[in-house]
Design a protein that fits this description.
This protein is mostly beta strands. The chain is built from six helices and 65 strands. A hairpin with a 7-residue loop joins strand 45 and strand 46. 53% of the residues are buried. One of its GO terms (biological process) is xyloglucan metabolic process.
C-alpha cells in the first residue's frame, strides 16, 4: 500500500515538474507544435540495411561525414562513421513538403572560413538548405527556387577564399538509379518520369525540375543567385561538378556532359575545352587535387566509356583522364584497368555483360546482344562512373564500377591506383572467384586476390557469389585522405589504410560471435510490424523489409550506454539465409516457440513460413499466391499484414492483403494480383480462402483484431473516402458475413483497431479532405463512442497494458497537402490531454507501427518507413 502511494506521489511530482500545455489540435494545421523533452526517441537495430548513394565528408573536419540513404533519411557522424545522428527536423511538417530538412542530402559544401556554415540541396527537389552548426540542423531557403527556375541543383561549391561566393550547377547525374547513359543517349537521359507540381502540393511532392543546363552564382552567401550559364552550352548538359581554383579564385572549372567549361573571371565568361584529348567529352565524374606548395591543380575526369560494335565483338573508348594544365589538354590513364578475355568469359560476369553492359546500352535484350556479339573482346573497360583523388596525395586514385545501378558489368567494383594511373587494381574484394576460377588471371595483372572486407553484421554476404552481386555508387576521402568511406549495396565500408582493408561499420557486436547488434544510428531499413506477447518479458520481435525478423536483446549497454541491441532471425532456404521482407508474424497462443511469418516481397514471397523452435528453423507451410504467375516477382510488393491466430481455435489463421495502406499512402505493386481483402486458413496455414462477404466492395481493409474480451469476435478496419465509405466491421466465428459496427455519423474511414485492458475499443479514423469531427482517435465504452483526439486524420493507436490511461497515437504525412504537425502524440489521462513526442525521430511522420512495452513502464517502440526502429523512454512515468 505504501509502495503504491509513493509511486503515485512520484508520478504526480513528475507530472508537475514536466508540465506543459496540452496540444491544441485546432492549431495543428497552421502552428508549429514543439515536442516535449521528456520523451526522446533513440534509433536502434542494424545500421544501413538499405541503398545509400550519397556520402559527403566535411571539407575541413576529418571526423565529420554526411549520408543521405534512399529511404528518405539524412544523417551526420562526427566520429568517422562510428555513430550517427539524424539531421532532419523531428517536429517539421510532412517530409513531402521538403521543409523537414535535406531529405537524402545532396552536394553539401562548407565555408573554409567558418566550418559551421554550409549549403546543400536534396535529390528530388530544387530547394537549398543552410546550416550554421556544421550540418546538425538545416534551414530551407524556398525563395531561391524561382531563381533556380525550378531546375534541379546537382552540385554546389564555395569559393575557398571567400564564403560570400558560391556556385551551383544543374542536373540529375548524381541520381545513379535513374540517370543513365546509352548508345542512343550518350550524354545521358533521366530514366524515370518526373511529375509536375510544387513540393508539398501533390504528385508526391516532386517539383517540376525539367532539366536545362544552368550555372548560378551567389555573392551574398547563397541568399540570392544569378544565372551565369556559359553561352551556347547545350541545354541538355548536366553540370557534373564545379571547382574553384584555391590560389586563383577567379578561375572556375565546370565539368559537364558536353565537355569542360573554364572561366577566368568568376563566371562572367566561359571557354569550352573540348577535343583536347578526351574521346567523347562526356564528363561523368570529376575531381581536383590542389598542391598548396606549388599552387597548382590537377584535374581528373571520367569520360563516358562507349561500347562500339566491332564485327561480332565489342570495342570501346573513353575512360579515365588526367589534366595537369588546368583542362587545356587531357591524357588517358586507363592503363591496365581494362580486364582481359579470360576474366570476361567468366559465366557469372557474362550475365551482366550481355544484360546490362551491352543489352541496356544498345537497348536490346541479353539474348539479342549475345547473338550479335558472341565473341568476347580481348580486353574491355568497365563503364566506370566516379573518380576521386586523395586530397593529400595526387597519385592515390579511386574509380567506381557501379554495376548495381549503371550499364556496366561485374568483375571488380572499386579500382585503385597508387601511382597516378600507371597501374590499377581492384582494392575491395569479396567473392568466390577471387581465389577460385579467376585467381591466376588476377595475379597475372598484379592484382591481390585476398578477400579484404569484414562484413560484421552482414556476414552472410561473405563470398556468397562469384563477385559481389551488388556494387556501390559512391566513395569519398575525408579531408586529409586518412579515411575512405565506400557504399556497397546496403551498407557502408570504411578503410583507414588507403583501401588495403575494409570494415563494414554500420553496426557493432555486443560480444564476439553472439550476433547481437547495436546499430550506428544510420538505419535505412523499412520497418514493419512490431510483435509483443504478454508471456514474453525479455524481448519483442520486429518485422523488417529486406532484413527478415529481428529480436531485441538486453546487452546493448556493452557497446554504448542506453543502446538497444537486436538479434537477426534469418529465414533459411536450404540452410542459407535469403533476403526476405517480413511484413507480419504471429505467435501461437499455446506455444511461444511456434510462430508464422508472411512476406511481402523477395524470398518466400506469397508463402507462409512456420517455425516451431522460436525461429531457429523455418519451413514453408501453405502458399497464398504464386508471384511467378503475376508478372515480374522481383519488382512486386503485395503487403500481407496483421497475421492473427484465433485464441481458442489455433488452427484458424487470419490476415489482410490491402490494395492500399493508410500508412504513408503506400500502394501495392503486384502485377495481375486482384484478390485483396481478408484471408483465413482453417488448417493451420496449409490452404487459404478470402472472406470478404459483407465488406465494402472497393474498400481497403487496414487492420483486423480479435476482441480479447470476447474471443469469438474478429473486427476489421476499412479505409474509405467521402464517396466510397469504409468503416468498422465485425465477424462472429459462427457467421461467414461481416456486419457493420455502428459508428458516429460522418466517420467513413477507419484505419486501426485496439482493445484496451479496461475493455474499451479504440479506433483511428478520418480522411484528409474531411472534417475534424469525423477523424482522429475514438473510444467506445459501454456502447458509447467518444472522440479523444480531435483531428481529421489519425493512423495508429495503442494503450498500455499496465495502465490503459496511457495512450499513443500517430498522425501520418499526407501526399496531397502540407501537413504542419505529423507525428506521435501521447496522453497519460485517457485522452483528456495530449503531448507531442517526436523528439529524436527523423521519420516521426512516417510511422508503420507503434507499441507500448507490455512489461516495462514508460518504454515505447515504433517502426518507420525507412529509418528502422526507435525506442523511447518516458521520464514522466518511468520509476
Amino acid at each position: 500500500m505504501k509502495k503504491t502511494l509513493l509511486s503515485n506521489i512520484l508520478l504526480l511530482v513528475a507530472s508537475l515538474l514536466f508540465a506543459q500545455e496540452s496540444v491544441d489540435f485546432s492549431k495543428l494545421d497552421h502552428t508549429r507544435i514543439e515536442s516535449i523533452s521528456t520523451v526522446n526517441w533513440q534509433q536502434f537495430g542494424p545500421g544501413g540495411s538499405g541503398n545509400n548513394y550519397h556520402i559527403y565528408w566535411h571539407p575541413t573536419d576529418v571526423n565529420t561525414v554526411y549520408q543521405g540513404p534512399n529511404m528518405g533519411n539524412s544523417y551526420r557522424s562526427t566520429d568517422r562513421g562510428e555513430t550517427y545522428e539524424g539531421i532532419m527536423d523531428p517536429d517539421g511538417p510532412s517530409y513531402r513538403t521538403r521543409r523537414r530538412g535535406p531529405v537524402e542530402i545532396y552536394a553539401p559544401d562548407f565555408s573554409r572560413q567558418d566550418e559551421n556554415f554550409g549549403i546543400c540541396t536534396i535529390e528530388d527537389a530544387n530547394y537549398i538548405y543552410f546550416t550554421f552548426d556544421k550540418g546538425k540542423t538545416w534551414k530551407i531557403n524556398e525563395l531561391v527556387s524561382a531563381q533556380f527556375e525550378n531546375i534541379h541543383v546537382n552540385t554546389i561549391k564555395v569559393d575557398p577564399t571567400d564564403d560570400n561566393v558560391w556556385y551551383a550547377g544543374s542536373g540529375n547525374i548524381r541520381d545513379s538509379n535513374h540517370f543513365f547513359h546509352t548508345n542512343k543517349h550518350p550524354h545521358g537521359v533521366f530514366g524515370s518520369k518526373v511529375k509536375v507540381g510544387k513540393a508539398g502540393h501533390g504528385n508526391d511532392g516532386n517539383p517540376d525540375y525539367g532539366h536545362q543546363a544552368r550555372i548560378w552564382k551567389s555573392t551574398n552567401k547563397g541568399e540570392t543567385w544569378k544565372n551565369i550559364t556559359p553561352k551556347g552550352i547545350d541545354p541538355r548538359a548536366q553540370i557534373t561538378r564545379i571547382f574553384v581554383h584555391p590560389a586563383r579564385p577567379q578561375t572556375v572549372f565546370a565539368g559537364t556532359t558536353f565537355g569542360l567549361y573554364k572561366s577566368e573571371n568568376g563566371g562572367k565568361s566561359w571557354k569550352q575545352k573540348v577535343k583536347n584529348g578526351m574521346d567523347n567529352d562526356i564528363i561523368r565524374s570529376m575531381d581536383m587535387y590542389y598542391d598548396p606548395t606549388s599552387k597548382k591543380v590537377i584535374l581528373y575526369a571520367i569520360d563516358l566509356v562507349k561500347y562500339i560494335p566491332n564485327g561480332n565483338t565489342i570495342a570501346y573508348n573513353g575512360g579515365v583522364y588526367k589534366s595537369e594544365d588546368e583542362g587545356d589538354s587531357w591524357i588517358n590513364i586507363n592503363s591496365d584497368m581494362p580486364i582481359n578475355k579470360a576474366i570476361l568469359k567468366n559465366p557469372n560476369i557474362q550475365k551482366g555483360y550481355y544484360k546490362f553492359a551491352l543489352g541496356k546500352w544498345f537497348g536490346i535484350t541479353a539474348s539479342e546482344a549475345k547473338e550479335k556479339y558472341p565473341k568476347a573482346p580481348d580486353q574491355l573497360m568497365h563503364s566506370v562512373s566516379m573518380i576521386r583523388v586523395n586530397p593529400t596525395n595526387p597519385n592515390h586514385l579511386l574509380v567506381i564500377n557501379n554495376y548495381k545501378s549503371q550499364f556496366t558489368f561485374p568483375g571488380g567494383m572499386l579500382w585503385r591506383s597508387d601511382d597516378g594511373g600507371k597501374h590499377w587494381y581492384v582494392t575491395l574484394r569479396n567473392g568466390k572467384d577471387w581465389n577460385g576460377r579467376d585467381k591466376a588471371n588476377w595475379e597475372t595483372r598484379n592484382n591481390p586476390t585476398k578477400i579484404n572486407v569484414d562484413w560484421i553484421g552482414q556476414d552472410e554476404w561473405e563470398e556468397r557469389d562469384a563477385y559481389d552481386r551488388k556494387a556501390g555508387a559512391v566513395a569519398e576521402f575525408n579531408a586529409d585522405g586518412s579515411t575512405i568511406m565506400y557504399q556497397v549495396a546496403k551498407i557502408v565500408c570504411v578503410s583507414n589504410d588507403n583501401g588495403d582493408t575494409w570494415l563494414e561499420n554500420d553496426e557493432q557486436e555486443t560480444k564476439p560471435g553472439n550476433h547481437h547488434w547495436v546499430g550506428a544510428g544510420n538505419s535505412n531499413l523499412p520497418g514493419e510490424e512490431i510483435i509483443q506477447d504478454e508471456r514474453i518479458k525479455d524481448h519483442i520481435y520486429l518485422c523488417a523489409g529486406e532484413n527478415s525478423i529481428f529480436k531485441t536483446t538486453n546487452d546493448g549497454d556493452l557497446v554504448r550506454k542506453g543502446a538497444q541491441a537486436v538479434y537477426k532471425i534469418s529465414i533459411p532456404n536450404k540452410q542459407k539465409p535469403e533476403e526476405c521482407s517480413v511484413g507480419t508474424m504471429a505467435i501461437d497462443p499455446n506455444d511461444v516457440n511456434h510462430m508464422y511469418a508472411l512476406h511481402f516481397r523477395q524470398a518466400y514471397f506469397g508463402q507462409l513460413m512456420e517455425t516451431k523452435d522460436g525461429g531457429k528453423n523455418w519451413a514453408p507451410k501453405g502458399r497464398i499466391f504464386d508471384p511467378n504467375k503475376l508478372g515480374n516477382p522481383l519488382n512486386m510488393i503485395i503487403h500481407q499484414s496483421h497475421l492473427r491466430i484465433d485464441p481458442t481455435e489455433t488452427e484458424h489463421l487470419y490476415f489482410v492483403i490491402p490494395k492500399k495502406r493508410v500508412v504513408h499512402n503506400v500502394k501495392f505493386k503486384g502485377g495481375k494480383f486482384k484478390d485483396f481483402g481478408i484471408y483465413t486458413s482453417k488448417d493451420g496455414g496449409v490452404t487459404f480462402e478470402v472472406i470478404n462477404n459483407g465488406l465494402p466492395k472497393n474498400g481497403h481493409v487496414q487492420k483486423i483484431e480479435f476482441d480479447e474480451h470476447n474471443k469469438g469476435e474478429l473486427y476489421a478496419a476499412v479505409m474509405g473516402t467521402q464517396k466510397q465509405v469504409g468503416g468498422l466491421y465485425k465477424l462472429n466465428k459462427k457467421s461467414t458475413t461481416w456486419e457493420k459496427v455502428h459508428l458516429p455519423k460522418g466517420i467513413v474511414s477507419v484505419h486501426d483497431i485496439h482493445f484496451s485492458k479496461d475493455k474499451k475499443l479504440y479506433i483511428t479514423a478520418g480522411t484528409f479532405d474531411g472534417t475534424v469531427k469525423n477523424g482522429g482517435v475514438w473510444v467506445r465504452s459501454n456502447n458509447n463512442w467518444k472522440q479523444v483526439l480531435p483531428y481529421k486524420f489519425a493512423s495508429l493507436v495503442t494503450t498500455a497494458k499496465y495502465d490503459p490511461n496511457i495512450i499513443l497515437a500517430a498522425i501520418p504525412s499526407d501526399g496531397t497537402m502540407g501537413m504542419m504537425n505529423p507525428g506521435i502524440y501521447r496522453s497519460l489521462d485517457g485522452g483528456k490531454t495530449w503531448k507531442k513526442i517526436n523528439a529524436g525521430n527523423i521519420q516521426s511522420d512516417r510511422i508503420n507501427a507503434l507499441e507500448i512495452d507490455y512489461h516495462k513502464k514508460g518504454v515505447y517502440y515504433c517502426s518507420t518507413y525507412g529509418a528502422g526502429y526507435y525506442i523511447a523512454y518516458d521520464k514522466e512515468i518511468m520509476q
